[in-house]
């Protein structure tokens, strides 16, 4: 039995993920189940959302989960056991107006984890993708015309 340990991680900060994964593996020795459940979204017309915000959403929803997964994966492969779960979104399967960056990041994540599932079969590592319909999450109401402030976390 291990005492719980709180480890803070900003999944959109790709540069710190490797260090956090090392800290987790040093503390516990392994990860049996990795659940990727962080997300960021914004609502707005494509022409109203900055490319910088598109990149932040892609970092949080695509590069963050795959970076963390790649950091934990060698340990699972060496033990030939583990389960990786991606909590994604139905928008990873269908596009919805005013959610282009979010849907694109979720489509990319589905593609990556589908490929990973096939590759990990030989190592007895399970990879699951859960794509719920719309959920209510924390939201900051933006000032008029300020799309960057309309990020959902």
TrEMBL record:
A GO MF term: oxidoreductase activity, acting on the CH-OH group of donors, NAD or NADP as acceptor
One Pfam family cited in the UniProt record for this chain: adh_short
GO biological process terms held by the UniProt record: intracellular calcium ion homeostasis
The entry's keywords: NAD, NADP, Oxidoreductase, Signal
Keyword match NAD: yes
Coiled coil ranges: none
PROSITE patterns, alphabetized: ADH_SHORT (PS00061)
The UniProt record lists the keyword Transcription regulation: no
UniProt family annotation: Belongs to the short-chain dehydrogenases/reductases (SDR) family.
Protein name (record): Dehydrogenase/reductase SDR family member 7C
Gene: Dhrs7c
């Amino acid at each position: 039995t291990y005492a719980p340990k709180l480890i803070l991680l900003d999944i959109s900060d790709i540069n710190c993920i490797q260090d956090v994964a090392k800290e987790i593996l040093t503390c516990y020795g392994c990860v049996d189940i990795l659940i990727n459940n962080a997300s960021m979204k914004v609502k707005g017309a494509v022409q109203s959302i900055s490319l910088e915000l598109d990149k932040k959403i892609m970092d949080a929803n695509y590069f963050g989960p795959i970076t963390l997964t790649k950091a934990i994966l060698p340990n699972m492969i060496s033990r030939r056991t583990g389960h990786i779960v991606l909590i994604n979104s139905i928008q990873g399967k269908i596009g919805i107006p005013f959610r282009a960056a979010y849907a694109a990041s979720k489509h990319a994540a589905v593609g990556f984890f589908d490929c990973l599932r096939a590759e990990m079969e030989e190592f007895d590592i399970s990879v699951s993708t859960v794509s719920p319909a719309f959920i209510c999450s924390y939201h900051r109401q933006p000032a008029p015309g300020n799309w960057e402030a309309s990020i959902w976390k």
